[in-house]
Amino acid sequence: MIIYEVAVEVDRAIEKNYREWLRGHVEEIIALPGFLHATVHDRCDVLENTDRVGVVMHYTLTDQSALDSYLAAHAPRLREDALNRFGGRFSATRRVMQPMLTLHAAAVRAEGAQA
């Protein structure tokens, strides 16, 4: 499993339009082969540029080859669409992660109670 993170900073002046567009954009991406689901987060920490808001998308994919396929076949078109709509009024950074460890609180608590 692979997590593909896209962190975006959006000018407050276009925030409403960006958010209206974003759901369809994310739905288009997760309809592609290899995507399992996506979670969209509002950033709660303070950005350096207070004229912007932060939004972070986490896309979960089956594997690296699914991400490679997306990046080669679909990402350029989707990125260009965003640039055409919003120009330089947003910026994006991307990271790829692989889960290392998943812990569930209930299981940890139950384990601790038995010790």
CATH topology: Alpha-Beta Plaits
Instruction: Indicate the CATH architecture.
Output: 2-Layer Sandwich
Low-confidence stretches: none
- State the separation between the terminal residues, measured CA to CA: 32 Å
Estimated share of beta-strand residues? 25-35%
Per the principal axes of the C-alpha atoms, what is the gross shape?
globular
Question: Structural class per helix/strand content?
Answer: alpha+beta
Written as H for each helix and E for each strand, in order along the chain, the element string is: EHEEHHEH
Pfam families: DUF4286
InterPro entries: Dimeric_a/b-barrel, DUF4286
Protein name: DUF4286 family protein
General description of the model:
The chain is of the alpha+beta class and 115 residues long. The chain has one domain: Alpha-Beta Plaits. It has 4 helices and 4 strands; from the N terminus they run βαββααβα. It has helices at residues 15-30, 64-73, 75-86, 105-114; strands at residues 2-11, 35-42, 52-61, 90-97. The chain has a 4-stranded antiparallel β-sheet. It is globular and about 60 Å long. The mean pLDDT is 95.
Topology:
Elements: E1 2-11, H1 15-30, E2 35-42, E3 52-61, H2 64-73, H3 75-86, E4 90-97, H4 105-114
Antiparallel strand pairs: 1-3, 1-4, 2-3
